[in-house]
Design goal:
Distance between the termini: 19 Å
Pfam family, one: PdxA
GO molecular function, one term: 4-hydroxythreonine-4-phosphate dehydrogenase activity
Number of strands: 14
Strand content: 15-25%
Enzyme class: oxidoreductase
Structural class: alpha/beta
InterPro entries: PdxA_fam
Strand order of the largest sheet: 3-4-2-1-5-14-13-6-7-10-8-9
Shape: globular
Radius of gyration: 20 Å
CATH architecture of the largest domain: 3-Layer(aba) Sandwich
Largest sheet: 12 strands, mixed
CATH topology of the largest domain: Isopropylmalate Dehydrogenase
CATH class of the largest domain: Alpha Beta
EC number: 1.1.1.262
Number of helices: 12
Length: 347
């Protein structure tokens, strides 16, 4: 399998649905047809999931990537030996689980920076568990940025026609408004443009959201559009980007979902996440649980490739066998596409 990229996949929080969706994703032959996947985390947790759910798979514990077999049905696990299984319970927030989750992220980054793997995919982590373990980060994006020494980065969400990048993410709404600045908007336009190309997107038209209702309505409902967003749009056009805006957010995402834009710029976390999850998440009102969760989170601007599921840890269903692996499969597929593009671009 000389041309297939090696994809390192973290377990996420071991007490979450992360280990389950990772195993379930690797029980699809199509994953092995397109790449060489290996899990990074604690083998005892993956083994517990396989036994608990009676899954048709076995574990191959490795200490070096060169030991991986990449054989369907035999799941390679880069074992970090952080979890004491006798003291472990699915669905519980703990510092021990947070430490194990953080170490799996740290290791997969190290493997990618060393060139041992071609791309990284992350399972869901719990911010409280991570912080209880003494690692004070707002999320995966910030961990990756710090450990790779990256200053200019952004979160890009991908689901079918909707591709959303954010000016700011894990900050308060008050801070988010203050972070709407011309230079940052130009930065994420450039990151989004590059992301669309690397994902194979042919529609490179970018829609840029306003911050305020009706995109400020000529200053009646706020001045950020006139002072920061519109100047950024004009400069982006001068630089050759095909951009539209500022578009009122309640209109922008309706148009984007039908393919009017290759991608859109959201001004803050929930402005982009709410329409994105309305597109990709399906709630079963009878069973009171998600029946399908789709969507990929890509960190743009890093020296390595990082994709992720765009959903949480779902502790309430951890270890019960009902978690959907849809988003994990899509995250792996996106990592494969990005690694192929990067290889072509550097060859």
């Amino acid at each position: 399998m000389p041309d297939k990229p090696i994809i390192g996949i973290t377990m996420g929080d071991p007490a979450s649905i992360g280990p389950e969706i990772a195993i379930k994703a690797l029980l699809n032959q199509s994953i092995y047809d397109s790449c060489k996947p290996l899990l990074v985390g604690d083998a005892v947790v993956f083994d517990a999931i396989i036994k608990r759910l009676s899954l048709n798979a076995s574990i191959n514990i490795i200490k070096n990537v060169s030991e991986a077999r990449f054989e369907f049905g035999v799941i390679d696990v880069f074992d970090l030996y952080n979890i004491e299984i006798s003291q472990f319970n699915f669905g519980e927030i703990s510092a021990a689980a947070g430490e194990a989750a953080f170490q799996s992220v740290k290791k997969v980054i190290e493997l990618a920076l060393a060139g041992d793997i071609d791309a990284t995919v992350t399972g869901p982590i719990n911010k409280k568990s991570i912080n209880e373990a003494g690692h004070h980060y707002a999320g995966h994006t910030e961990i990756y940025a710090y450990l790779t020494g990256t200053r200019k980065y952004a979160m890009l969400l991908v689901e079918d026609n909707l591709k959303v990048i954010h000016v700011s993410t894990h900050v308060s709404l008050r801070q988010a408004c203050d972070l709407v600045k011309k230079d940052r908007i130009l930065e994420v336009v450039d990151l989004l443009h590059n992301g669309l190309i690397s994902l194979g997107e042919t529609n490179l038209k970018i829609g840029i959201a306003g911050l305020n209702p009706h995109a400020g309505d000529s200053g009646l409902f706020g001045t950020e559009e006139e002072l920061e967003i519109l100047p950024a749009i004009e400069e982006a056009r001068r630089r050759g980007f095909d951009v539209d805006g500022p578009v009122p957010p309640d209109t922008l995402f309706a148009k984007a979902a039908t393919g009017a834009y290759g991608g859109v710029v959201a001004m803050y976390h929930d402005q982009g996440h709410i329409p994105f999850k309305l597109t990709g998440f399906q709630w079963d009102a009878v069973k009171q649980q998600m029946k399908s969760v789709k969507g990929v989170n890509i960190t743009m601007g890093l020296p390595i490739i990082r994709t992720s599921v765009d959903h949480g840890t779902a502790f309430e269903i951890a270890g019960k066998g009902v978690a959907s692996a849809d988003a994990m499969i899509l995250a792996i597929e996106s990592a494969v596409q990005l690694s192929k593009y990067r290889k072509q671009a550097t060859s």
